[in-house]
Design brief:
It is a multi-pass membrane protein. Helix content is 74%, strand content 0%. The protein is mainly α and 302 residues long.
Length: 302
Amino acid sequence: MADRNTPNRPRQRIIERGIELLLALCGSISLLTTLGILGVLVWDSVAFFQDVSILDFLTDTQWTPLFADKHFGILPLLSGTFLTTLIALLVALPLGLLIACYLSEYVRPAVRNVLKPLLELLAAIPTIVYGYFALTFVTPLLQHLIPGLAGFNALSPGLVMGFMLLPLVSSLSEDAMQAVPSGLREGAAALGATRMQTAWRVIIPAAFSGVMVSVILAISRAIGETMIVAVAAGQQPRLTLNPLVPVETITTYIVQVSQGDVAQGSLEYNTIFAVGLSLFLLAFGLNTVGYFLNRRYREHYD
């Protein structure tokens, strides 16, 4: 038996080595893709910053690269992006955490198995549908409640974006809460804590690393959202924190320039790579912060 199987061992080693290389290649695809995207953004951004000062790009309060009087300050695009993101988070985070707490601590497993998939259906709706819903339904409704609200504004897409982020926040947070050992719940109940006190003072702190991951992912998702703000927020870059007026986000500007009206290779065309690089660095920074927060709180509670 040993002699008969001996010739097959080199062949098995070759097959196993090939499988290892294939798995390593699959694992490196995401890294190579990220490096490729970063390389393209940096290469074309260098051409942009040869004509535009980085200081002007970071400090100028006007963004008019498609006008005769050209200004290349990214602050108006950043303010529009942060404004819609903030509105979305004010909706998604409290509602998402309350839903996660309810699904994790209050409902029976049979009910949870029905409600959770229904909630996650919100994530399957195309974002262009959310955008037109914000423009044709939410905005007219808000105009009846808020005098002076413009037809394009930051409030309407921000609210709709918040509901779009609900499945992301609630599902990931609920999974993190479900992973908390049941002994913590039993110990809190033995000390006389109510179900609400157990959820907010025991379960959520113990699942804080997972909750923070859902929050960081929601922020990154909101910053990178395109179609909702492109349809309902307008295309007027302005440095403002007023949610009642039209704004323009980074992704909306990229869509505007990418429609083919700007000559490829021109300074105006290269602006999309500069703002795209800014968006990439912003998302990368958020994910890095989320990673270290997750690691810190996981070590703390472990």
